[in-house]
Amino acid sequence: MASVSSDQSADQAAGNPPVVVITGASAGIGRATAVAFAGRGAKVALLARGEVGLEGAAREVREAGGEALVIPVDVADAEAVQRAAERAETELGPVDVWVNSAFTSVFAPFSEVSAEEFRRVTEVTYLGTVYATQAALKLMRPRDRGAIVQVGSALAYRGIPLQSAYCGAKHAVQGFHESLRIELMNEGSGIRTTMVQMPAVNTPQFSWVLSRLPKQAQPVPPIYQPEVAAQAVLYAADHPGRREYWVGTGAAKTILGNALVPAVLDKYLSRTGFSSQQTPDPRPADQPQNLWEPADGPGGRDFGSHGLFDDQARTSSKQQWVAHRVGALTSAVGPAVASAGAGLIVLTDKAKPVVGALKSRIGSSAPGSASSSGSASSPGSASSSDSAQS
Protein backbone atom coordinates (compact mmCIF):
# COMPACT_ATOMS: atom_id res chain seq x y z
CA MET A 1 0.00 0.00 0.00
CA ALA A 2 1.57 3.25 -1.12
CA SER A 3 -0.61 5.80 0.61
CA VAL A 4 -2.53 6.51 3.77
CA SER A 5 -5.41 4.22 4.71
CA SER A 6 -8.83 4.70 3.12
CA ASP A 7 -10.39 5.57 6.48
CA GLN A 8 -7.74 8.17 7.14
CA SER A 9 -8.10 9.61 3.64
CA ALA A 10 -11.87 9.72 4.06
CA ASP A 11 -11.54 11.61 7.33
CA GLN A 12 -9.35 14.22 5.71
CA ALA A 13 -11.56 14.45 2.64
CA ALA A 14 -14.50 15.09 4.98
CA GLY A 15 -12.71 18.12 6.34
CA ASN A 16 -11.45 16.54 9.55
CA PRO A 17 -7.96 17.91 10.15
CA PRO A 18 -5.28 15.25 10.65
CA VAL A 19 -3.90 14.71 14.14
CA VAL A 20 -0.12 14.56 14.20
CA VAL A 21 2.32 13.88 17.05
CA ILE A 22 5.93 14.99 16.61
CA THR A 23 8.82 14.31 18.96
CA GLY A 24 11.76 16.69 18.92
CA ALA A 25 9.29 19.40 17.95
CA SER A 26 10.93 22.37 19.66
CA ALA A 27 13.56 22.98 16.97
CA GLY A 28 15.09 21.84 13.70
CA ILE A 29 13.41 19.25 11.50
CA GLY A 30 10.73 18.42 14.06
CA ARG A 31 9.66 22.04 14.35
CA ALA A 32 9.72 22.65 10.59
CA THR A 33 7.63 19.51 10.12
CA ALA A 34 5.10 20.72 12.67
CA VAL A 35 4.72 24.00 10.82
CA ALA A 36 4.39 22.20 7.49
CA PHE A 37 1.58 20.00 8.84
CA ALA A 38 -0.04 23.10 10.32
CA GLY A 39 -0.20 24.52 6.81
CA ARG A 40 -2.71 21.74 6.13
CA GLY A 41 -4.73 22.75 9.16
CA ALA A 42 -3.47 19.82 11.24
CA LYS A 43 -3.79 19.42 14.97
CA VAL A 44 -0.22 18.97 16.15
CA ALA A 45 1.01 17.63 19.48
CA LEU A 46 4.49 19.04 20.08
CA LEU A 47 6.72 16.82 22.21
CA ALA A 48 10.18 17.83 23.44
CA ARG A 49 12.02 18.82 26.64
CA GLY A 50 12.55 22.51 25.94
CA GLU A 51 9.52 24.48 27.03
CA VAL A 52 10.75 27.77 25.59
CA GLY A 53 11.32 26.15 22.20
CA LEU A 54 7.99 24.33 22.39
CA GLU A 55 6.12 27.56 22.98
CA GLY A 56 7.88 29.13 20.01
CA ALA A 57 6.96 26.16 17.86
CA ALA A 58 3.35 26.36 19.04
CA ARG A 59 3.14 30.01 17.98
CA GLU A 60 4.42 29.13 14.51
CA VAL A 61 1.97 26.23 14.21
CA ARG A 62 -0.96 28.49 15.06
CA GLU A 63 0.26 31.19 12.69
CA ALA A 64 0.42 28.59 9.91
CA GLY A 65 -3.20 27.62 10.47
CA GLY A 66 -2.90 24.60 12.75
CA GLU A 67 -3.82 23.74 16.33
CA ALA A 68 -0.95 23.18 18.75
CA LEU A 69 -0.72 21.16 21.94
CA VAL A 70 2.51 21.57 23.91
CA ILE A 71 3.60 18.51 25.90
CA PRO A 72 7.01 18.78 27.58
CA VAL A 73 8.52 15.28 27.79
CA ASP A 74 11.84 13.46 27.72
CA VAL A 75 11.50 10.66 25.17
CA ALA A 76 14.03 8.58 27.13
CA ASP A 77 11.27 8.10 29.74
CA ALA A 78 8.99 5.40 28.34
CA GLU A 79 6.17 5.96 30.84
CA ALA A 80 6.21 9.72 30.26
CA VAL A 81 6.01 9.18 26.51
CA GLN A 82 3.00 6.90 26.93
CA ARG A 83 1.27 9.51 29.08
CA ALA A 84 2.04 12.16 26.45
CA ALA A 85 0.54 9.96 23.74
CA GLU A 86 -2.64 9.42 25.71
CA ARG A 87 -2.94 13.14 26.40
CA ALA A 88 -2.48 13.97 22.72
CA GLU A 89 -5.26 11.61 21.72
CA THR A 90 -7.57 12.75 24.51
CA GLU A 91 -7.20 16.44 23.68
CA LEU A 92 -6.77 16.38 19.90
CA GLY A 93 -8.49 13.20 18.74
CA PRO A 94 -7.33 9.92 17.14
CA VAL A 95 -3.70 10.18 16.05
CA ASP A 96 -3.22 9.77 12.30
CA VAL A 97 0.51 10.40 12.00
CA TRP A 98 3.37 10.03 14.46
CA VAL A 99 6.79 11.49 13.58
CA ASN A 100 9.89 10.59 15.58
CA SER A 101 12.49 13.34 15.24
CA ALA A 102 13.99 13.61 18.73
CA PHE A 103 17.71 12.99 19.15
CA THR A 104 20.85 14.18 20.84
CA SER A 105 24.53 13.65 20.17
CA VAL A 106 28.11 14.30 21.24
CA PHE A 107 30.71 15.76 18.88
CA ALA A 108 33.94 14.14 20.00
CA PRO A 109 36.27 11.23 19.25
CA PHE A 110 34.98 8.01 20.79
CA SER A 111 37.86 7.99 23.28
CA GLU A 112 36.59 11.29 24.71
CA VAL A 113 32.95 10.21 25.20
CA SER A 114 32.10 8.88 28.65
CA ALA A 115 29.98 5.78 29.20
CA GLU A 116 27.23 7.94 30.70
CA GLU A 117 27.23 10.26 27.68
CA PHE A 118 27.11 7.37 25.23
CA ARG A 119 24.23 5.84 27.17
CA ARG A 120 22.32 9.12 27.16
CA VAL A 121 22.64 9.56 23.39
CA THR A 122 21.44 5.99 22.90
CA GLU A 123 18.51 6.41 25.29
CA VAL A 124 17.26 9.56 23.56
CA THR A 125 18.04 8.84 19.92
CA TYR A 126 17.38 5.09 19.75
CA LEU A 127 15.32 4.08 22.76
CA GLY A 128 13.34 7.31 22.55
CA THR A 129 12.30 6.25 19.05
CA VAL A 130 11.42 2.78 20.31
CA TYR A 131 9.35 4.08 23.22
CA ALA A 132 7.52 6.61 21.05
CA THR A 133 6.77 3.97 18.43
CA GLN A 134 5.37 1.68 21.11
CA ALA A 135 3.12 4.50 22.29
CA ALA A 136 1.99 5.25 18.75
CA LEU A 137 1.15 1.62 18.04
CA LYS A 138 -0.84 1.33 21.26
CA LEU A 139 -3.04 4.17 20.00
CA MET A 140 -3.26 3.03 16.39
CA ARG A 141 -3.78 -0.73 16.74
CA PRO A 142 -7.43 -0.59 17.88
CA ARG A 143 -8.25 1.38 14.69
CA ASP A 144 -5.78 -0.58 12.52
CA ARG A 145 -4.63 2.56 10.76
CA GLY A 146 -2.05 5.30 10.99
CA ALA A 147 1.40 6.21 9.75
CA ILE A 148 4.64 6.28 11.74
CA VAL A 149 7.55 8.20 10.23
CA GLN A 150 11.05 7.71 11.61
CA VAL A 151 13.36 10.63 10.87
CA GLY A 152 16.60 8.90 9.99
CA SER A 153 19.89 9.92 8.47
CA ALA A 154 22.38 8.85 5.87
CA LEU A 155 24.44 8.06 8.97
CA ALA A 156 22.04 5.17 9.62
CA TYR A 157 24.03 3.46 6.86
CA ARG A 158 27.47 5.05 7.07
CA GLY A 159 29.29 5.76 10.31
CA ILE A 160 31.52 8.81 10.37
CA PRO A 161 34.16 10.00 12.83
CA LEU A 162 33.35 12.28 15.77
CA GLN A 163 29.75 11.06 15.98
CA SER A 164 30.07 7.45 17.13
CA ALA A 165 27.17 7.57 19.61
CA TYR A 166 24.78 9.19 17.14
CA CYS A 167 25.77 6.91 14.27
CA GLY A 168 25.35 3.85 16.45
CA ALA A 169 21.91 5.00 17.55
CA LYS A 170 20.74 5.74 14.01
CA HIS A 171 22.00 2.36 12.83
CA ALA A 172 19.93 0.84 15.63
CA VAL A 173 16.84 2.80 14.56
CA GLN A 174 17.29 1.51 11.03
CA GLY A 175 17.39 -2.12 12.17
CA PHE A 176 14.43 -1.60 14.50
CA HIS A 177 12.42 0.05 11.72
CA GLU A 178 13.04 -2.83 9.32
CA SER A 179 12.05 -5.46 11.90
CA LEU A 180 8.86 -3.64 12.86
CA ARG A 181 7.89 -3.03 9.26
CA ILE A 182 8.15 -6.72 8.43
CA GLU A 183 6.13 -7.70 11.50
CA LEU A 184 3.34 -5.30 10.53
CA MET A 185 3.36 -6.69 6.99
CA ASN A 186 3.11 -10.23 8.34
CA GLU A 187 0.14 -9.23 10.49
CA GLY A 188 -1.63 -7.66 7.54
CA SER A 189 -1.81 -4.49 9.61
CA GLY A 190 -3.24 -1.28 8.24
CA ILE A 191 -0.57 0.68 10.14
CA ARG A 192 2.37 1.77 8.02
CA THR A 193 5.87 2.74 9.09
CA THR A 194 8.52 4.36 6.95
CA MET A 195 11.88 6.08 7.45
CA VAL A 196 13.27 9.24 5.91
CA GLN A 197 17.07 9.30 5.58
CA MET A 198 18.19 12.89 5.93
CA PRO A 199 21.24 14.70 4.53
CA ALA A 200 23.15 17.45 6.32
CA VAL A 201 20.50 19.90 7.58
CA ASN A 202 20.87 23.42 8.93
CA THR A 203 19.42 22.88 12.40
CA PRO A 204 20.34 24.34 15.81
CA GLN A 205 22.02 21.08 16.86
CA PHE A 206 25.40 22.52 15.90
CA SER A 207 24.85 25.29 18.44
CA TRP A 208 23.78 23.13 21.38
CA VAL A 209 25.06 19.56 21.04
CA LEU A 210 27.77 18.70 23.56
CA SER A 211 31.02 19.27 21.68
CA ARG A 212 34.66 18.68 22.55
CA LEU A 213 35.88 19.80 19.14
CA PRO A 214 38.31 22.71 19.03
CA LYS A 215 36.34 24.39 16.23
CA GLN A 216 32.65 25.15 15.67
CA ALA A 217 30.83 22.01 14.56
CA GLN A 218 29.11 22.11 11.19
CA PRO A 219 27.11 19.83 8.87
CA VAL A 220 29.04 18.38 5.95
CA PRO A 221 27.91 20.08 2.70
CA PRO A 222 25.68 19.98 0.77
CA ILE A 223 23.47 21.43 3.50
CA TYR A 224 19.67 21.70 3.27
CA GLN A 225 17.19 23.85 5.13
CA PRO A 226 14.86 22.13 7.62
CA GLU A 227 11.88 22.92 5.40
CA VAL A 228 13.27 20.60 2.70
CA ALA A 229 13.45 17.83 5.27
CA ALA A 230 9.96 18.67 6.51
CA GLN A 231 8.43 18.37 3.05
CA ALA A 232 10.05 14.95 2.71
CA VAL A 233 8.47 13.89 6.00
CA LEU A 234 5.05 15.07 4.83
CA TYR A 235 5.42 13.13 1.60
CA ALA A 236 6.46 10.04 3.53
CA ALA A 237 3.46 10.41 5.86
CA ASP A 238 1.20 10.61 2.81
CA HIS A 239 2.92 7.61 1.20
CA PRO A 240 4.10 5.40 4.08
CA GLY A 241 4.04 2.21 2.04
CA ARG A 242 7.61 2.73 0.87
CA ARG A 243 10.16 1.36 3.34
CA GLU A 244 12.30 4.50 3.25
CA TYR A 245 13.07 7.76 1.47
CA TRP A 246 16.37 9.48 0.78
CA VAL A 247 16.57 13.26 0.92
CA GLY A 248 19.08 15.26 -1.10
CA THR A 249 22.10 14.35 -3.17
CA GLY A 250 24.27 14.13 -0.06
CA ALA A 251 22.25 11.28 1.40
CA ALA A 252 21.97 9.53 -1.96
CA LYS A 253 25.71 9.77 -2.63
CA THR A 254 26.55 8.54 0.85
CA ILE A 255 24.23 5.54 0.79
CA LEU A 256 25.04 4.52 -2.78
CA GLY A 257 28.77 5.12 -2.37
CA ASN A 258 28.86 3.07 0.79
CA ALA A 259 27.01 0.20 -0.90
CA LEU A 260 29.57 0.17 -3.72
CA VAL A 261 32.87 1.01 -2.05
CA PRO A 262 32.59 1.08 1.75
CA ALA A 263 36.31 0.60 2.36
CA VAL A 264 37.14 3.46 0.00
CA LEU A 265 34.83 5.71 2.00
CA ASP A 266 36.55 4.57 5.21
CA LYS A 267 39.85 5.84 3.89
CA TYR A 268 38.32 9.00 2.45
CA LEU A 269 36.62 9.87 5.74
CA SER A 270 39.78 9.16 7.71
CA ARG A 271 41.40 11.98 5.73
CA THR A 272 38.49 14.43 5.44
CA GLY A 273 35.89 13.50 8.05
CA PHE A 274 37.46 15.51 10.86
CA SER A 275 38.04 18.85 9.15
CA SER A 276 34.81 18.74 7.12
CA GLN A 277 32.74 18.71 10.31
CA GLN A 278 34.31 21.89 11.68
CA THR A 279 34.39 25.51 10.57
CA PRO A 280 37.60 27.56 10.78
CA ASP A 281 36.13 29.40 13.80
CA PRO A 282 36.81 28.33 17.39
CA ARG A 283 33.99 26.69 19.30
CA PRO A 284 32.29 29.31 21.50
CA ALA A 285 33.35 28.89 25.11
CA ASP A 286 29.79 29.54 26.30
CA GLN A 287 28.06 27.17 23.88
CA PRO A 288 25.13 25.44 25.63
CA GLN A 289 24.94 21.67 25.98
CA ASN A 290 21.58 19.97 25.65
CA LEU A 291 22.64 16.41 26.46
CA TRP A 292 21.29 16.44 30.01
CA GLU A 293 19.18 19.59 30.10
CA PRO A 294 17.42 21.34 27.18
CA ALA A 295 19.18 24.42 25.83
CA ASP A 296 15.72 25.81 25.04
CA GLY A 297 14.27 25.08 28.44
CA PRO A 298 13.71 27.45 31.38
CA GLY A 299 16.51 29.97 31.42
CA GLY A 300 17.38 29.15 27.84
CA ARG A 301 16.21 30.65 24.58
CA ASP A 302 14.18 29.70 21.54
CA PHE A 303 16.58 28.51 18.82
CA GLY A 304 13.94 28.10 16.10
CA SER A 305 14.17 25.69 13.18
CA HIS A 306 17.32 27.02 11.52
CA GLY A 307 20.94 26.81 12.57
CA LEU A 308 23.98 28.92 11.80
CA PHE A 309 24.32 28.06 8.12
CA ASP A 310 21.50 29.85 6.29
CA ASP A 311 23.98 31.31 3.81
CA GLN A 312 25.04 27.82 2.69
CA ALA A 313 21.79 25.87 2.96
CA ARG A 314 19.74 24.81 -0.04
CA THR A 315 16.02 25.49 -0.10
CA SER A 316 15.05 22.69 -2.48
CA SER A 317 16.18 19.25 -3.63
CA LYS A 318 16.07 18.05 -7.21
CA GLN A 319 16.74 14.55 -5.92
CA GLN A 320 13.48 14.67 -3.97
CA TRP A 321 11.51 15.79 -7.00
CA VAL A 322 12.87 12.86 -9.00
CA ALA A 323 12.58 10.31 -6.18
CA HIS A 324 8.90 10.98 -5.63
CA ARG A 325 8.11 10.59 -9.31
CA VAL A 326 10.38 7.66 -10.01
CA GLY A 327 8.95 6.02 -6.90
CA ALA A 328 5.43 6.18 -8.33
CA LEU A 329 6.60 4.39 -11.46
CA THR A 330 8.64 1.69 -9.74
CA SER A 331 6.51 0.80 -6.73
CA ALA A 332 5.93 -2.66 -8.12
CA VAL A 333 9.66 -3.30 -8.30
CA GLY A 334 10.57 -1.85 -4.94
CA PRO A 335 11.52 1.39 -3.20
CA ALA A 336 15.23 0.72 -3.43
CA VAL A 337 15.02 0.99 -7.20
CA ALA A 338 13.26 4.33 -6.94
CA SER A 339 15.74 5.79 -4.49
CA ALA A 340 18.76 4.43 -6.29
CA GLY A 341 17.45 5.62 -9.64
CA ALA A 342 16.78 9.08 -8.31
CA GLY A 343 20.18 9.24 -6.70
CA LEU A 344 21.98 8.14 -9.84
CA ILE A 345 20.07 10.60 -12.00
CA VAL A 346 21.25 13.60 -10.00
CA LEU A 347 24.78 12.47 -9.14
CA THR A 348 26.20 13.07 -12.66
CA ASP A 349 29.69 14.49 -12.45
CA LYS A 350 29.57 14.59 -8.64
CA ALA A 351 29.80 10.79 -8.68
CA LYS A 352 33.00 10.74 -10.70
CA PRO A 353 35.35 10.67 -7.68
CA VAL A 354 33.54 7.60 -6.33
CA VAL A 355 33.50 5.94 -9.75
CA GLY A 356 37.20 6.63 -10.12
CA ALA A 357 37.86 5.15 -6.72
CA LEU A 358 35.81 2.10 -7.63
CA LYS A 359 37.83 1.59 -10.82
CA SER A 360 41.00 1.92 -8.81
CA ARG A 361 39.81 -0.71 -6.36
CA ILE A 362 38.81 -3.06 -9.16
CA GLY A 363 42.22 -2.64 -10.72
CA SER A 364 44.04 -3.32 -7.49
CA SER A 365 41.91 -6.41 -6.91
CA ALA A 366 42.97 -8.08 -10.16
CA PRO A 367 44.43 -11.63 -9.85
CA GLY A 368 47.96 -11.44 -8.55
CA SER A 369 47.47 -8.04 -6.93
CA ALA A 370 48.88 -7.80 -3.43
CA SER A 371 45.73 -6.07 -2.17
CA SER A 372 43.14 -8.31 -3.85
CA SER A 373 42.44 -10.34 -0.73
CA GLY A 374 41.45 -7.22 1.20
CA SER A 375 39.21 -5.64 -1.41
CA ALA A 376 36.07 -4.16 0.15
CA SER A 377 34.06 -4.86 -2.99
CA SER A 378 34.83 -8.56 -3.21
CA PRO A 379 31.58 -10.53 -3.04
CA GLY A 380 31.13 -12.09 0.35
CA SER A 381 34.19 -10.44 1.84
CA ALA A 382 34.08 -9.57 5.52
CA SER A 383 34.60 -5.90 4.87
CA SER A 384 31.69 -5.64 2.45
CA SER A 385 29.20 -7.40 4.73
CA ASP A 386 30.27 -5.99 8.08
CA SER A 387 31.16 -2.43 7.11
CA ALA A 388 29.20 0.40 8.70
CA GLN A 389 26.82 1.63 6.06
CA SER A 390 26.26 5.08 4.60
Automatic annotation (TrEMBL):
Family statement drawn from the similarity comment of this UniProt entry? Belongs to the short-chain dehydrogenases/reductases (SDR) family.
Question: Which residue ranges have biased composition labelled Low complexity?
Answer: 363-390
Q: Matching Pfam families, A to Z? A: adh_short
> What InterPro entries does the entry give?
KR_dom, NAD(P)-bd_dom_sf, Sc_DH/Rdtase_CS, SDR_fam
The family database entries (Gene3D superfamilies) matched by this protein are listed as: NAD(P)-binding Rossmann-like Domain
Q: What is this protein called?
A: SDR family oxidoreductase
Disordered, as annotated region: 273-316, 361-390
Keywords for the protein's UniProt record, in alphabetical order: Oxidoreductase
| Entry superkingdom | Bacteria
- Residues of the Ketoreductase domain: 18-194
Which residues are in coiled coils? none
